[in-house]
Each structure stands twice: as structure tokens, then as C-alpha cells.
Design a protein that fits this description.
The complex is a heterodimer.
Chain A: H1 5-19, H2 23-34, E1 47-53, E2 62-68, E3 71-77, H3 90-93, H4 95-99, E4 109-111, E5 120-122, H5 125-141, E6 148-152, H6 158-170, E7 175-177, H7 183-193, E8 199-201, E9 208-212, H8 223-233, E10 243-247, H9 253-257, E11 260-262, H10 269-282, H11 288-294, E12 295-296, E13 301-302, E14 308-309, H12 312-319, H13 322-329, H14 333-345, E15 349-352, H15 364-376, E16 386-388, H16 422-428, E17 436-440, H17 444-447, H18 451-460, E18 463-468, E19 480-483, E20 492-495, E21 504-508, H19 521-532, H20 534-539, H21 545-559, E22 563-564, H22 568-579, H23 590-600, E23 602-604, H24 613-616, E24 624-625, H25 629-637, H26 641-644, E25 671-676, H27 690-695, E26 707-710, H28 712-717, E27 725-730, E28 733-741, E29 749-753, E30 791-797
Parallel strand pairs in A: 6-7, 6-17, 9-10, 9-15, 10-11, 12-24, 17-18, 18-19, 25-29, 26-28
Antiparallel strand pairs in A: 1-2, 2-3, 4-5, 4-19, 8-16, 13-14, 20-21, 21-23, 22-23, 25-30, 27-28, 27-30
Helix pairs in contact in A: 1-2, 5-19, 6-19, 7-15, 10-13, 10-14, 10-15, 16-18, 21-23
Chain B: E1 4-9, H1 18-26, H2 34-38, E2 47-55, E3 58-66, H3 75-79, E4 85-87, E5 93-95, H4 105-109, E6 116-117, E7 144-145, H5 151-163, H6 176-180, E8 186-190, H7 197-202, E9 207-208, E10 220-223
Parallel strand pairs in B: 1-10
Antiparallel strand pairs in B: 1-8, 2-3, 4-5, 6-7, 9-10
Classes of the chains: A alpha/beta, B alpha+beta.
């Protein structure tokens, strides 16, 4: 008889049973019965490390993936990648579960039922591509090419550039990326700086960060890059500590990690920012030279017609007096004074806001108020301040078709696009009817605040096709499902965007071969372009997506700047060389650049960053505008505009930063609903991954479900105990959720985490409640951004 | 003989939990079902302990990443009836999974509650098992598990150094949590080597050990949050 150790222990326990009482031993024998279960054996194999690019958010961190045989077993950060330098956030690490997920789409599917009651039939890729091609061919032949809309998950990937090039060659102006969540900031940049590029915040070099409700450490921007900067701020070896102050009604994780948390009444961030501006002016703490030489509208002024206009100084000193600001915001006057003095005396300083998450923008006027603090201390364009995104010298995307984009708004001062407007345009069939929608890893039904409108709108569209790895709320409404590989199985290239001040392009080959016969959208569209012939085929003359990427790398090489990712030492050397006019590449042709990019993870230009001050201000005055002439002109030409912003016609405030009107609480719905972002589910993705579900509610020890944060005293008044199931009721509807007492919740507000409550797809992602289903579908009038922050609710026990 | 130890700088920690997921992925720690998670049966070798104190708006929310603290005098090893846990000469508190009989005396004895019990046979839904690490065995039901400081990585690093005929250098051996931390809050190395970064960090005036008065002598050392953090937070936890 062969006896192993466990058998022996059981045997010994049995002997004990024979001599003593059976009481304690029953437990042991039950445990031992379990030991007979089959052990999980993990196969080995040859080991290698491959470079990859993270696709769980738009930041595009560099990955190193450990592979054993054909399996990817571990994800780490690429230490050479300038965005993350070896670190990673938990989302990136969970990509393995996405790769091996049980609920992935495995074959193309055709909906043979209706939109509301789909019946899916598996089809071959040939049939799927033929179906999509036929639809696109017919629409183009019928002169309806412009009526095709493509919604992309973002626009940082080079595959997105390819899709955009396809759309433009095909004849549609409707390539629409999902919003970045930075909408209010972009509006402030546009009106005050005339910039159409997103801002970049030089966190690595700043001395003071004042965030107005931005979820800095919970998914905003590029999480790994932000966290790396945060670690540096507090590294004793890096010199003086950078102070980080978080202004926010709720004690968020970000607020708890900040050096100081300033609790503020919800929605009054603009008042606080302008109150601080008034202190800076009154105490003469602002950068007088910058304000004099590089700004417009600080002092009272007269226009060409001789009309007098109110200056920023007059407005803030008369309307945002310390005691009034303190009363309105609930922030003690001495704290406001202290913040203003610290902000002015710890330069370079950055003011960031107003409140926004990676999916929900704030208000443009409030963002302008916050940004005016940056102007007052001369942080714009300065190292450690607010810069503009550096664009990588990639080839042109294409020409713009003649038709107007479907979502462009002629009624708002902020030009350009708002995806949120799409349903409205679809219902109105204006400027034209939409005939087809293509979705590329995008789920607007779930992640747009007006998702419900998207749901109804998609039901009206004759043809919807979706490239996606998982069924989601939007793709469930499609006619054709095209299963896409996950990030580790595909060619990836992406620009880093506003994560770092430098331009960077990551490049990586598939880490593991695509599973389940999935195909990358870019490859499919190249094939379709070829078969559509004519100018579409001519615009994408590539055999494969890889060939397209080689073409883009050729453009990088031709630009003759930058270097392959490298260690910090080489980077400093390259930067010094380039600043003195040298370019000493490690490659002598595009082929070598390609090989080296694959070997190190990508290309970047360590020298691009500052010194662009001349191009910083593209406003009519070529200066930073406290008084936005663009907004002022718009209001003069559209007298009906000012009232929509809550102002009288002719009021100068329409072009100046100011506190937007606040929703008042009524007895009906006494509480404010604030959706909050948690890092593991930031951006609406991640709920299908157990690794992330387990850690998303850590501050309240919540796992796998939504929770409603409510202040214990507020809860007590409503008779709600910790853990009670409650109804939360907004004008849009109600939802059942577990209430959790949280001392960090603002007493007049309840907080509900974003990212939960998907309607379709993996069973794991369908848990919990989506707060966006409760927020009111309203848009502000300057840029048409959704107002997700002022929904009033009632909460009661179920 | 090195004495492996770790410092966790609470001032740098962003509470992002990358360490938690990195550890889980490196060490084949399965995700339990949502129902089991609700019963507090999540398996984790490192997790964040939240603590909130004060009244709105004068509040502190602290998040403490906590692996096994690898005590020099671990209470857990004294109670194990089968010698499944012990301390190695270089200071790592080991757990020999195949020896464990699941009596859970050690989970009770650990004052830091850093040991978890496999209530069920581990499950890897779908193809999750494809991503399992071949260097770490999957623990069956009925076995206690805990942080091993990624001991398998030490073995590998030691072998690689030996093959290259050189002594092990600082950074050759890092546990998954220390390696991934995006904020650089975790420093790991040889506490005996006065030149090492971890020894330098351990000498910081901000350094403290959890429940020091128990005499367990943990080798995972915390650095308090320091200036601007509203008083001395480091002392309040114990």
C-alpha cells in the first residue's frame, strides 16, 4: 500500500477517532475528503518575453508579457516606455482575463431576428465580410456614403487613423470617436487659448497641483503616468515635495491620498476658483508680467466700436469676495486665503478642473474659471504647467469630405463634434438620415449619459455592425457582430496623447496568436476597401494592417526627429543633442526604425515639450483671453444664446469665466446624485473581469456589486441602515441598490460608482446599477456637453 | 546570508491595487465567486486594508497594502502541527502547500490575518487556467495559503546568477508587487546589506512596524505618510 502524507494524516485521525470522541475529528475528515479532488496541473514550456501595448484605456502603456509555450501568463510594464516606465495600473494587469475570458465572441454572427428580440446565427468570416461589403457598396452606389457613421472607442490608436482614412475615402465625414471626458477642459482651451489640441499637464515638473474634483488617481488621464508622477512628488530623493490639494465634496480615494482635502459644496468649484483669483489679485500675488504681456481682458477695456467691457479683475474682485465665496462654497475663508497664497508661491503650479471623470466632462465656464488660475500664475506653456499635446509626425489622415458631419452643431459656440448629439440627429433625420452605423469597440448605449437615446436611435437605423470582443449594450442592437481580438492578440500602435508632454508612438506585434478566429477591424476594413475599388482602394493600398503600420513608421522616419524608447540616461543624452540641433538616430532607414520600435516598444521625441509659446495662443488677440472674444462674438451674433447660459443678453459674463447656475434642491428630491469613478472600472470598461470586480469597492469592502454611498447622518434621518437595500429615484427612473454608510460622503449628496450595470454581455458585467441610467439627459449650451452632475434624487428603503 | 525585507511607503501609495492584481496573477490565486466574495472569502496574499476615522469634513481614509509581513518571530509557525510552515534562513516565512492539513491554527495565530484558507477547489472559468504560472503550484481545497515573497522568483534569480557566475545583484529578485507598483512605493531587497535601498528606507524616521509590541519583528516595514498629512497617521493603526 502506497501511503502519502495526507493519507497518513487521515489514517492518524482515524486512529484518534477510534480512541477518543468523534467530535473534533469530523471536521478533519471532511476537509480530507476534499483533498481527493483532482489537482490543477499547470503545463510548462519554453519561456519568452514579448512586448505589447495595453488597450484597456486610451493611455496605451507599454507591456512586457511573459509567455510560456503559447500561453500568456503574466503582464508587466515595459520599463522603457515613457508613459508608464515599467509600472502599470490594475486594469492593464487584468488584460489576461480579457484574453482568456469565457464570454468572448467566437464567431461572426448575423441577427436574423429583430433589433429588440435578436436571434443570432453563427456565420463564416467570408459571409460576414461579404455582408458588410455589400451594404457599404450599395450605400455608396446610391450616393449615400455620407450617411454611414463609425463610432470608435477612441482615436489614439493607429487602427483608428486607418478607420478614419477609410471613412473619408469612402465619402463619409462621420468618423466619431467616443468622448475623452476632457470636454470641458478642451472647451476652456478653445475659448481662452484658441487651441484645438488637448492640454497636457506637466505633472513630472510641477510643484503644486490643485485639482477641482478631478479623479486624478482614479482613472483620469493616463493612470500609470499620473501615479508615477505622484510617487515622484513624494520621493525624498527627488527634492522638495510637490503639494497636491484635492477640492471635492466627497472624500474620494484621490482626496484621501492628497496632501489636503478641501470639502466643498457640490457644483461650486468655479466660485472657489474665482474667489482664489480675487485673492491673488487683491494681494498682488499674480504673475503681473505674464498678465500684462500675454493676456487679454484682465482690465476693463473698450472694443473697436467704443463699447466698454468688464475686465476679469473687476468681475472677480466685485463679485467673488472672500466672505461670499466662503458662504457659497462652504470652504472657510482662511482656507481659501491659504490655498491662494500657496498656489501663487509654489510655482510652477497647476489648477486642474472642473470636476470630470474619464467619461463625464464638467462645465466649460467652470473649467475656464479654473484655467484662469493657471494664467494668473503664468503656468501656461511653462515647464511644470499646462502645455499642449505634442503631435507625432505621422502621415496625413486624409481629406475632408464635403458633407457636414452628422453631429456638428450649428447652434453652439464651440465648433466641432459632440457624439452626444448623434441620437438627436438620427431622430430628426437632419442634416440627413443615417443609413448605417459601424461600432469599433464602442458602447455608447452603456457609457454615454444619454445612452437610452442611443438605444432608441440605433433601433431606427437600417444597418448596424459591431467590431467587438464581447457582446455589449450597443452591439446587442446590431445586425452583424464581428468578433475582434483583444489587445494582446493584435497588431497595436498608438500615440500617447496627453499622457506625457512628449510625442510618443507605441508599436507592438501580437503577443499571442488571435483566439477563436477573431479578426482585427483594421484588417477587415483594408480587405473591404480593396473590394470597393476606386478611390477607397487607392486610399488604403495595403496588403495587411502590418503593411499600413510600416507605412506610418516610414512617415516617422521621414520626419527625422526623435528616438526609439530608451533608458533614462540615453534619453537625456538624446534630448541634449536634439536641443543643440543634432539628431543622432540609432537607425539609418525606416526598416531599422521598425525593427527597433518592435524591440523597445516604440518611438518618441524626448525633446518636444516646451518652447512653443508662440503657438500657445491662437485666439484673435494672440494672447490668453480672460474674456473670450470667440464667446463674446458668438453672443453678439446670437442674442438668444446668453439666456440659455442663465444670463441677460449683452451681459459680458457670457464670455468670462463664471459660476454656472446651480440646480436647487426641492422637497421632492432632496439629494444630489453624483456618479463617481473607481479606478478598476474607470472609463466604463472592466466590469467583466473578476480581478477588477474583486477590488473595485475596497474602501467599503464591497465586491462584485454597486453600492450607494450615503452619509451616516443623512441615512439616519431617512431611516436607512448600513447595508439596506434602497430605491434611488431620479426623474428618469429608479434602481435598487445597497446603501452603504460612508462618512466621506457629502451629507446632501449620494454617490453611485460608474462602470456597473451593463445590460448585455458577460454575466459578470451585468451586476449592479449604471448611474448613467439615472442622470438627466441634459446638455449645457456652450459646447453641448452632457450635464451629469446635477441630477436630484430621492432615496428610500425598499 | 541575505535577510529579505520590504518597505511600503504610504506617502507614495496611491491605493491603486496594482500590487493586489499582480500578486494574484503571479501566484495563481483564483478569484472566488461573487457570493463567496460577499462572505469575505476572497483569497488574496496582499490586499488593502481601509480605515476611516473622523467626522466630515475632517476625515482620514487610510489604505494599507498588506502582504504577509514575514516576521522574524512568526507566531504562525509555532502552532503548525505538521511543519507545513517555517522560516527559511534568509527570513522568508514559507508555506509548504502539500504539507498543509488545513487545520487553520496558523490563520488564527497570525495577528495580521495574512493567511487565507481555500474553502473550495479552485476554479478557473473559461480559459483562465491558460494564464496560470507554471512556477507556482495551484493550491487545492482545504489548504492554507499566503504570500511567499514570490519565493519561486528567488530560486530563479539565484540560479540565473549562479549560471552567469556572479553574485546576486540588487533588483535581481523582486516580488511581483514590488515590481509592478506604478508609484514606486514598494522597495524590496536585503535588509542586512546597509547599502541596499530597502535598508536605507527602513532607517527612515518615518519607518514603523505593525503591532510592534507583539514582538513579531516583521520584515515588511511601513513608511508613514509624513509631512502635510494632518498629524502622525503612522501611529494610529496599531
Amino acid at each position: 500500500m502506497k501511503l502519502d502524507r495526507r493519507d497518513f494524516v487521515r489514517f492518524a485521525a482515524g486512529a484518534a477517532l477510534a480512541t477518543g470522541s468523534g467530535l473534533g475529528v469530523r471536521g478533519i475528515s471532511r476537509v480530507n475528503a476534499a483533498l481527493e479532488a483532482e489537482e490543477v496541473r499547470v503545463p510548462g514550456g519554453p519561456e519568452k518575453w514579448a512586448l505589447g501595448t495595453c488597450s484597456l484605456c486610451e493611455a496605451g502603456c507599454g507591456l512586457r508579457v511573459r509567455c510560456v509555450g503559447k500561453r500568456a501568463v503574466r503582464i508587466q510594464g515595459n520599463p522603457l516606455h515613457p508613459v508608464n516606465r515599467g509600472g502599470l495600473c490594475p486594469k492593464g494587469l487584468a488584460a489576461l482575463q480579457e484574453l482568456y475570458h469565457p464570454d468572448r465572441l467566437r464567431a461572426p454572427r448575423l441577427n436574423t431576428g429583430s433589433r429588440t428580440a435578436p436571434r443570432w446565427r453563427d456565420i463564416s468570416w467570408d459571409e460576414a465580410i461579404a455582408t458588410l461589403r455589400r451594404k457599404l457598396w450599395e450605400l455608396r452606389q446610391a450616393g449615400q456614403a455620407h450617411s454611414v457613421v463609425l463610432i470608435d472607442r477612441g482615436e489614439r490608436g493607429l487602427d483608428s487613423r486607418l478607420l478614419r482614412r477609410f471613412m473619408e475615402a469612402y465619402g463619409s465625414p462621420n468618423y466619431l470617436p467616443m468622448p475623452s471626458g476632457l470636454g470641458s477642459l478642451e472647451a476652456a482651451m478653445y475659448f481662452q487659448q484658441g487651441a484645438t489640441r488637448p492640454p497636457v499637464f506637466d505633472f513630472d515638473n510641477t510643484r503644486y497641483l490643485l485639482s477641482f474634483g478631478v479623479n486624478v488617481l482614479e482613472g483620469w488621464g493616463s493612470p500609470a503616468a499620473v501615479m508615477r508622477a505622484f510617487g515622484r512628488w513624494r520621493d525624498p530623493a527627488a527634492g522638495r515635495r510637490t503639494k497636491f490639494v484635492q477640492v471635492e465634496p466627497r472624500l474620494s480615494l484621490t482626496a484621501s491620498r492628497a496632501d489636503e482635502w478641501v470639502a466643498i459644496r457640490p457644483g461650486t468649484e468655479a466660485t472657489l476658483a474665482l474667489g482664489m483669483a480675487s485673492v491673488l489679485i487683491a494681494e498682488d500675488l499674480y504673475d503681473a508680467a505674464f498678465v500684462r504681456e500675454r493676456t487679454f481682458g484682465f482690465d476693463d477695456w473698450r472694443d473697436e466700436q467704443g463699447r466698454a467691457h468688464m475686465g476679469f479683475r473687476t468681475m472677480v474682485t466685485s463679485e467673488y469676495r472672500l466672505d461670499e465665496v466662503s458662504a457659497a462654497t462652504g470652504v472657510p475663508a482662511e482656507i481659501i486665503l491659504k490655498l491662494a497664497r500657496e498656489f501663487a508661491n509654489n510655482r510652477p503650479a497647476i489648477a486642474l478642473g472642473d470636476h470630470q471623470t474619464s467619461t463625464l466632462p464638467g462645465n466649460p465656464y467652470a473649467a475656464m474659471a479654473v484655467h484662469s488660475l493657471n494664467a494668473l500664475v503664468g503656468s501656461i506653456g511653462a515647464p511644470g504647467g499646462v502645455l499642449l499635446e505634442a503631435a507625432a509626425p505621422l502621415g496625413n489622415v486624409g481629406s475632408h469630405p464635403a458633407r457636414p458631419p452628422i453631429d456638428e452643431s450649428p447652434e453652439r459656440p464651440m465648433p466641432g463634434r459632440q457624439l452626444a448629439r448623434l441620437p438627436e440627429a438620427i431622430f430628426a433625420r437632419r442634416p440627413y438620415a443615417v443609413q448605417a452605423v459601424l461600432l469599433h469597440h464602442a458602447d455608447p448605449v452603456f457609457s454615454m449619459p444619454n445612452g437610452e437615446a442611443f438605444r432608441r436611435a440605433f433601433q431606427e437605423i437600417p444597418f448596424v455592425a459591431s467590431f467587438t470582443s464581447f457582446l455589449n449594450d450597443s452591439s446587442a442592437l446590431s445586425d452583424l457582430l464581428l468578433p475582434a481580438p483583444t489587445g494582446l492578440e493584435e497588431w497595436q500602435a498608438r500615440t500617447s496623447g496627453p499622457a506625457i508632454p512628449q510625442a510618443a508612438v507605441s508599436l507592438s506585434a501580437p503577443v499571442v496568436p488571435p483566439r477563436h478566429g477573431t479578426r482585427q477591424a483594421a484588417a477587415v476594413m483594408i480587405e473591404i476597401a480593396r473590394s470597393l475599388r476606386g478611390e477607397v482602394a487607392a486610399a488604403l493600398p495595403f496588403a495587411t494592417f502590418e503593411a499600413y503600420l510600416k507605412d506610418q513608421v516610414q512617415a516617422l522616419f521621414t520626419a527625422q526627429t526623435g528616438a526609439v524608447f530608451s533608458t533614462g540616461m540615453e534619453e537625456t543624452w538624446n534630448r541634449m543633442l536634439e536641443r543643440s540641433g543634432w539628431w543622432a538616430p540609432t537607425f539609418s532607414n525606416a526598416g531599422e526604425l521598425w525593427d527597433q520600435m518592435l524591440e523597445k516598444g516604440g518611438w518618441w521625441d524626448p525633446a518636444t515639450a516646451y518652447g512653443e509659446r508662440d503657438r500657445l495662443f491662437e485666439t484673435p488677440s494672440r494672447r490668453y483671453e480672460f474674456y473670450s472674444q470667440k464667446l463674446g462674438d458668438w453672443a453678439r451674433r446670437h442674442p438668444q444664446f446668453a439666456p440659455t447660459a442663465g444670463l441677460a443678453a449683452g451681459d459680458d459674463r457670457v464670455a468670462l469665466p463664471h459660476q454656472p447656475p446651480l440646480e436647487r434642491a426641492g422637497p421632492e428630491r432632496p439629494l444630489l446624485l453624483m456618479p463617481v469613478e473607481v479606478l478598476p472600472l474607470a472609463g466604463g470598461a472592466g466590469a467583466h473581469l473578476p480581478y477588477l470586480q474583486q477590488i473595485a469597492g475596497v474602501h467599503l469592502s464591497e465586491h462584485w456589486r454597486s453600492w450607494l454611498e450615503i452619509h451616516p447622518e443623512t441615512a439616519h434621518k431617512l431611516g436607512i441602515a448600513d447595508g439596506d437595500l434602497v430605491w434611488i429615484e431620479s426623474p428618469r427612473g429608479r434602481a435598487l441598490v445597497r446603501a452603504r454608510h460612508y462618512a466621506g460622503a457629502h451629507p446632501e449628496t449620494v454617490h453611485l460608482p460608474l462602470g456597473y450595470g451593463h445590460g448585455q454581455g458577460s454575466e459578470w458585467s451585468r451586476r449592479g446599477v449604471n448611474p448613467l441610467a439615472l442622470v438627466e439627459e441634459r446638455c449645457e449650451t456652450v459646447a453641448g456637453l452632457p450635464c451629469a452632475w446635477d441630477t436630484r434624487v430621492r432615496v428610500y428603503r425598499s | 546570508m541575505p535577510r529579505w525585507g520590504m518597505t511600503i511607503d504610504l506617502a507614495k501609495c496611491t491605493a491603486c491595487q496594482a500590487c493586489v492584481v499582480a500578486c494574484q496573477s503571479e501566484n495563481n490565486v483564483p478569484c472566488v465567486s461573487p457570493e463567496e466574495a460577499g462572505r469575505d472569502r476572497i483569497l488574496s496574499w496582499i490586499n488593502l486594508l481601509p480605515a476611516i476615522e473622523g467626522e466630515y469634513p475632517r476625515l482620514h481614509l487610510r489604505m494599507m497594502p498588506m502582504p504577509c509581513l514575514h516576521c522574524d518571530k512568526p507566531p504562525c509557525i509555532q502552532v503548525c502541527p505538521v511543519g507545513a510552515t517555517g522560516i527559511s534562513p534568509d527570513g522568508i516565512v514559507r508555506q509548504i502547500f502539500s504539507r498543509c492539513i488545513g487545520c487553520r491554527y496558523c490563520t488564527t495565530a497570525c495577528p495580521y490575518t495574512r493567511r487565507t484558507f481555500n474553502w473550495y477547489q479552485p476554479e478557473f472559468p473559461g480559459e483562465f487556467a491558460e494564464s496560470l504560472n507554471p512556477d507556482v503550484s495551484v493550491r487545492p481545497k482545504g489548504v492554507v495559503e499566503k504570500c511567499t515573497l514570490c519565493h519561486h522568483r528567488l530560486l530563479k534569480a539565484r540560479e540565473e546568477a549562479r549560471a552567469a557566475n556572479r553574485p546576486m545583484a540588487e533588483g535581481d529578485y523582486l516580488p511581483a508587487c514590488a515590481e509592478i507598483c506604478p508609484a514606486g512605493a514598494i522597495t524590496f531587497g536585503d535588509l542586512e546589506d546597509p547599502e541596499s535601498a530597502v535598508a536605507a528606507a527602513a532607517r527612515s524616521p518615518r519607518a514603523f512596524r505593525l503591532l510592534e509590541d507583539l514582538g513579531t519583528h516583521p520584515k515588511v516595514i511601513y513608511l508613514g505618510e509624513g509631512e502635510w498629512s494632518g498629524g502622525d497617521r503612522s501611529k494610529t493603526i496599531s
